[in-house]
Specification:
298 residues; alpha/beta; Rossmann fold; 11-stranded mixed beta sheet; 12 helices; Universal_stress_UspA; Nucleotide-binding universal stress protein, UspA family
């Protein structure tokens, strides 16, 4: 399917190939209510690695509408379509992070995000999940398997209930997705301070083994001073209990692709609806991601 892009900035066609391989965080924006939280989160990661934010707004038009026509008549499809990008620019610049903004006109919606990630050579995508966001599982179920099969970079999906990283809960059972969640938790802690609590849910009767695992994992990931909590029983219930005092739950996707799990049900998806705090779901690219590409930058 063809599509056409228009640039909101004069210099927004730059890519990592022409700017010295600068770290790039792509932020698809759809709902103005969540723009500030997404840009704030993206800014923390971009600033950590001396990178830039690519703020993208996708204007989806009906299949029967010519993309060439839609580009010249954007206000007909979305009044003040550039408003959310103007706000993103102000927020990112206030946080001291370079930002480039892009409007994409397409017959597709969600799928276009990952095409944009490839085009802009993104290292990380930070996207929202919930009503009126590009991450709404109810709108992507028919295409998600095709899309997620080749995710080009690391992905963070953020459920916004207020951006507050002062008390972060970080459940882990090991694996690359938990490693990515841990990396983001460290970045937020370095920038905003606060507390981090590690959680491991062990098998019934295996609490001692769970405590040994969590101690080793904490040392390997630089969380020597973090609080540790080991629970047993149902994983989703244990995470929900531990999140009662948290302001942010950062959790890895684990096992299967993140987005199919959100659609079909999973521990992570179940927990999102049970807790009151914001939730950050992390999926590390199985090809190349932050922890691989930035090994020498940390």
């Amino acid at each position: 399917m063809t599509h056409r892009r228009t640039d909101h900035d004069g210099d927004s066609r730059r890519s990592a190939a022409t700017d010295g391989g600068r770290f790039r965080v792509l932020v698809p924006l759809a709902n103005p209510q969540h723009e500030t939280a997404l840009v704030t989160l993206a800014s923390a990661v971009a600033k950590r690695y001396g990178g830039v934010i690519d703020a993208v707004h996708i204007v989806t038009v009906p299949d029967q509408t010519s993309l060439e026509y839609a580009v010249d008549h954007l206000e007909d499809h979305e009044e003040n379509y550039h408003g959310i990008l103007d706000a993103a620019r102000r927020d990112a610049e206030t946080l001291g992070v370079p930002v480039e903004t892009h409007t994409i006109v397409s017959h597709r919606g969600f799928e276009e995000i990952f095409d944009a990630a490839r085009t802009h050579d993104a290292d990380l995508v930070v996207m929202g999940w919930g009503p009126d966001s590009h991450g709404d599982p109810g709108r992507i179920e028919s295409t998600v398997d095709e899309v997620v099969g080749d995710v080009p970079c690391d992905v963070l999906v953020y459920r916004d209930r207020g951006f507050d990283p002062s008390r972060v809960l970080l459940p882990t059972a090991g694996g690359p997705d938990s490693d990515l969640a841990a990396e983001i938790a460290r970045i937020l802690n370095a920038r905003y301070g606060g507390e981090i609590t590690l959680l491991h849910v062990a098998e019934d009767g295996e609490r001692a083994a769970g405590e040994a695992f969590l101690e080793e994992w904490a040392l390997e990931h630089g969380f020597e001073d973090a609080a540790r909590r080991v629970d047993t029983g149902d994983v989703a219930a244990a995470i929900s209990r531990a999140a009662d005092d948290a302001t942010l739950l950062a959790i890895g996707a684990t096992e299967r692709g993140l987005l199919p799990r959100l659609v079909r049900g999973s521990v992570a998806a179940d927990v999102v609806d049970e807790v009151d705090c914001s939730v950050l779901l992390a999926e590390r690219s199985r090809t190349t991601g932050i922890l691989d590409r930035l090994l020498g930058w940390r």
